[in-house]
Predict the 3D structure of the following.
Amino acid sequence: MAENIEFIDCGSLSISYDATGKATISCNVIRDDSGNLRNDYNTWRLGSVYFDGNVMSLNQQPMIGSGGWNQWQLQWAGVGN
């Protein structure tokens, strides 16, 4: 099994951005084990704009039959700067 793999499932990525600068992001993060997420998901770069915010919810689920991989459902909210 590969080690240190963590990525966002692109098909699950949803981004909402309003005129006031508020952004919300939801996505699934896939990881090769059940430990804590390795990447910092409090800052995002979308195009040429950086967004600072906080992970509002994070729910972990094992991926049955995957040999130890896990999926996190991540919800984030923040503003562009």
Summary: DSSP finds no helices and six strands in the chain. The chain has one domain: 6-80.
